[in-house]
Structure formats: structure tokens, C-alpha cells
Automatic annotation (TrEMBL):
This is Outer membrane protein beta-barrel domain-containing protein. Residues 1-22 form the signal peptide. The lineage of its organism: Bacteria, Pseudomonadati, Bacteroidota, Cytophagia, Cytophagales. It comes from the Bacteria. Keywords: Signal.
């Protein structure tokens, strides 16, 4: 909760420091870049077990405002998750890589000068590959996100995803085994991105 409040204060401070610009005009090209990096370490007291995960992902989107406040585009996704486990002197390492792409539509609703709310339905595909294993997976999905977009300058924007929902179908295969699954999900959490307009 503190993170949400701090992010809100950050965006509110930026909002009050700059003058008005008209950013969401027809004919504008948009490049949006989102990075995510985090590490997690788990240790069990009373045993020698330790698990460390390092996650990195990036999503690059290329969009075009075909009408005022309406954007269409494509997204490219890359993710890497390195897992390292130690248990009583025995180690196990694995690397998981994700590659994906998608198409999206984004509708902006101006709240005040330089601050907009957006809704973005998306269709996407994701391929997952595991190092040292025949295990791989594929996923197709339809998701919808909501968020806010703030423009500190005419050519730069900061966006934040707020809440989303999705329908996903996954197909996973390992040697002679295969698994199909279908899921409905909703998700929340703040996800910041940097946007360039030209």
C-alpha cells in the first residue's frame, strides 16, 4: 500500500511541476519501453536449503495514434528467469526464457492537462523455453489493462498499469508428456513504463 501512495505522490508532484501540452494527437508515433527486474532469495532455517531467483523482462511497444486519443500497435516481449537452488551441497540451476509478441488497441480518456486514463485490450503469444530440458511451452491470450499516462514534456510520457484481466490458453510439452490449460485471471499492481512520442 505504501508503494501505491508513494507512486501517486510522485506522479502528482510531476503533474504540478509542468505546463500543459497536447500529447495525444492523431498522426503521432509512440515507442513505449517497460523493464522489470527483481531477485528473490529463500532460505529454510534448520536446513541448508537456499533458492535464488533473478527475473528480468522487457516489453517494447510501437504504436500509432490513428485518431485523437486512440492508439494501435505491436508489442515485443523478452523475459529471463535464472533459478539457482542449493540443498545439502547439491546444486541445481535452470534458466527460463520467454519470447513473445502481441497487438493492442489503447483508448485514452483525458482527466486533466497532461494526465490521461487508458484502457487497452491486447492479444498476444508467448513462447517459454527451459535450458537443459526438452520442456517448452506456448501461450496465447487476450488481456485488458487499465492505467494512467502522464506527460512531463511534449515528447516524453510516463505510464503506469493499474489493474487488468485476462483469458489465456497454455500448451506445454516435455518429452512424451503434454499439458493443456485454460485460465481466467485478474491482476493488479503498479507497472511503470517510459514512453517517447514523435
Amino acid at each position: 500500500m505504501k508503494l501505491i501512495v508513494l507512486n501517486f505522490v510522485f506522479f502528482l508532484t510531476l503533474f504540478t511541476c509542468f505546463s500543459s501540452f497536447g500529447q495525444l494527437e492523431q498522426g503521432t508515433f509512440v515507442i513505449n519501453e517497460r523493464f522489470d527486474f527483481h531477485t528473490t532469495t529463500t532460505k529454510n532455517k534448520g536446513s541448508n536449503y537456499e533458492n535464488k531467483q533473478t527475473n528480468f523482462s522487457t516489453t517494447t511497444s510501437f504504436g500509432y495514434l490513428f485518431k485523437e486519443n486512440q492508439e494501435v500497435g505491436i508489442s515485443l516481449v523478452y523475459g529471463r528467469n535464472k533459478i539457482s537452488s542449493q540443498d545439502n551441497g547439491f546444486g541445481n540451476d535452470a534458466t527460463i526464457q520467454d519470447y513473445g509478441f502481441g497487438i493492442y488497441y489503447k483508448r485514452y480518456i483525458n482527466i486533466v492537462d497532461k494526465l490521461s486514463f487508458f484502457v487497452s485490450p491486447q492479444l498476444g503469444y508467448l513462447s517459454t523455453q527451459y535450458s537443459g530440458s526438452e520442456y517448452n511451452g506456448n501461450q496465447i491470450g487476450a488481456n485488458i489493462y487499465t492505467g494512467i499516462l502522464y506527460h512531463p514534456t511534449k515528447k516524453i510520457g510516463l505510464s503506469m498499469n493499474l489493474v487488468g484481466a485476462g483469458i489465456n490458453y497454455s500448451y506445454r510439452k516435455q518429452s512424451m508428456l503434454q499439458n493443456n490449460s485454460f485460465s481466467l485471471s485478474n491482476f493488479g499492481g503498479l507497472n511503470l513504463a517510459l514512453q517517447f512520442m514523435f
